[in-house]
Amino acid sequence: MKFLIDKSPKDVARKSVSDLVMGQLLTPLTGYADAGGAYAIDNGAFSGFPVDRFRRLLERQEGRKADCLFVTCPDIVGAGMGIAIGKPVFVSAAGVELEPRSFRPIGSWLNHPSVQLDQGDGAIERCLAKAAGFFEK
Fold first, then answer.
1. What is the pTM of this model?
2. Cβ(46)–Cβ(76) under 8 Å?
């Protein structure tokens, strides 16, 4: 098992000597600079969705998309909770090839009626706009 850590570039470099740390987790809440190497982006929506800061983080990392492992918006835990209470869940999966029946690598929960899957060009922007509208209500 390996972890991404939400730390400054200096701390990521220091902790990356461990076999457990594989890169950096960037969030709009902490706003750390990019340490280089493998990274992922979390939406920081545990206590509310900071739409503008999340969008700026995505724009900042545009030139390093090749090193990005994943982006969460919403995260899987949030998706499960949203489905459980009947809230809409927006999933951007542009460029992701999904298996026909299982929807792997994401999962069959994508078949739930509360889930809106977008795999087209510009999917992340459409999902962000939908999520922003939902959270601003």
1. 0.61
2. no
The per-residue DSSP string of 38-103 comes to SEEE---TBTB--HHHHHHHHHHTGGGGGGEEEE-SS-HHHHHHHHHTT--EEEE-TTPPPPTTT-
Q: What are phi and psi of 24, to 5 degrees?
A: -110, 140
Task: Collect all residues with Cβ–Cβ distance below 8 Å to 120 and sequence separation of at least 6.
Answer: 94, 126
Q: Domain limits of the chain?
A: 1-72, 73-137
Q: In sequence order, what are the residues at sequence separation of 6 or more whose Cβ sits closer than 8 angstroms to the Cβ of residue 62? A: none
pLDDT tens per residue, the chain (137 residues)?
A: 678 889 899 998 888 888 888 889 999 989 999 999 888 888 877 667 788 888 899 889 988 888 887 777 655 666 776 777 777 777 877 777 888 888 887 788 888 888 888 888 877 777 777 766 655 54
Contacting residues for 54 by C-beta, under 8 A, at least 6 apart? 28, 43, 44, 73, 128
Angle at 50 between CA 45 and CA 52, to 5 degrees: 145
